[in-house]
Design goal:
There is one protein chain. The chain has one domain: START domain (Alpha-D-Glucose-1,6-Bisphosphate, Chain A, domain 4, 2-Layer Sandwich). The protein starts with 9 loop residues before the first strand and ends with a helix. Strands 1-7-6-5-4-3-2 form a 7-stranded antiparallel beta sheet, covered by helices on one side. With about 160 residues, the protein is α+β, with helices and mostly antiparallel strands. Strand 6 and strand 7 form a beta hairpin. It has 5 helices and 7 strands. The model has no long low-confidence stretch (mean pLDDT about 95).
Length: about 160
């Protein structure tokens, strides 16, 4: 962005009443993550890995490049389309044996000022929704469908039958 204005940085956090190890695993292991966020992944998040996450309900996917992974503490990755990545940092803070504060920071939005604002607002809403879905799943075993239901008119026809 020009004119000395700093691009926005999105931050969303949520207290999850589960052990930090379980919360961390829910983000790195697609067998868990697909219960509340994306529908398919090419692999688990590991240091240096590049994976592809799919949201089959919308017919979209994104590349995820893991830059740093500290067990039960931090995950830093770039995601997006080639040349248009943003940075996403997950921080896992143990509050007690059964409480984890999970913080997500998304930064590096590119484009004209109006486009950057739209991207940041969409990111904020999206990550807040993902954290709520994660909380419901880990604390109560409820697989919320908020990601698919956020924009039901954009769902690929018949995707639930094939998923």
């Amino acid at each position: 962005m020009s004119n000395g204005i700093k691009p926005p940085i999105v931050k969303a956090d949520m207290l999850i009443r589960r052990p930090v190890e379980e919360v961390f695993e829910a983000i790195v292991d697609p067998a868990v993550t697909t219960k509340f966020w994306f529908t398919k992944s090419s692999g688990k998040l590991e240091q240096g890995a590049t994976v592809r996450w799919h949201w089959e309900m919308y017919g979209v996917s994104t590349e995820v490049i893991v830059r740093e992974l500290l067990l039960n503490e931090k995950i830093l990755f770039e995601w997006g389309d080639e040349g248009d990545y943003t940075d996403v940092e997950w921080t896992f803070s143990r509050r007690s044996d059964n409480e984890t504060l999970l913080t997500v920071v998304n930064s590096g939005f590119k484009g004209e000022a109006d486009d950057v604002v739209v991207q940041a607002l969409d990111s904020n809403g999206g990550f807040t929704m993902v954290l709520c879905a994660l909380k419901a799943y880990l604390e109560h075993g409820i697989p919320l469908t908020v990601v698919a239901d956020r924009a039901p008119d954009a769902n690929v026809p018949g995707w639930r039958n094939g998923a």
